Amino acid sequence: MQSDTFAERVRTVVRTIPKGETRSYKEVAAVAGSPNAARAVGTIMSRNVDTTVPCRRVVRSVGKKMIWRPA
Question: 30, 40, 55, 59: which one is catalytic?
């Protein structure tokens, strides 16, 4: 049985995010098996050099839900 690191699981999850969609750090952490590791996901994404991992599809929870409305 192969033992994957949390970082490898995170990269695998992020690769499955469809083009045009985003996921929060918390969502990625939960799917990767550590629901309380959102900050670790952020660190992994910030240090990623693998161009097959679309890091830009992982966003802050707040950023995902903000709706801008002009005054």
Answer: 55
Say if residues 52 and 14 touch (Cβ distance below 8 Å): no
Using the CB atoms, write b or e for 4-23: b if 16+ within 10 Å: eeebebbbebbeebeeeeeb
pLDDT at 65: 46
- Annotated domain spans of the chain: 6-65
Q: Could you name the CATH architecture of 6-65?
A: Orthogonal Bundle (1.10)
Dump pLDDT digits (tens) for 10-36: 999 999 999 999 999 999 999 999 999
Question: Is 32 tagged catalytic?
Answer: no
- Collapsing DSSP states into helix, strand and coil, what is residue 59? strand
Q: Which amino acid is at 70?
A: P
